[in-house]
Amino acid sequence: MKRVPTKRRKEVSPVGIQNTVSSAIKKRGITIAELARRVDMEPELLRRSLAGTRKLTGIELVNLCHELDLEIEDFPTE
Length: 78
Hints:
Distance between the termini: 32 Å
Radius of gyration: 15 Å
Helix content: 40-55%
Number of strands: 0
Oligomer: single chain
Structural class: mainly alpha
Order of helices and strands: HHHH
Low-confidence stretches: none
């Protein structure tokens, strides 16, 4: 059986996620506390996630992207 080559998948780094979300927050002129309220998340958890001391869960990232109108293409890839 022939092996089918696959494209190397691109990954988004945690720092890329933090920077993109932080920039979107500033661009929209909202606070971290307000964004956390909108996505039903504890403000301290969001602060820690954006500081890099905690990883976002998949659903948290999806909710943040939805609230901030971010698409996957908005995140830098490695």
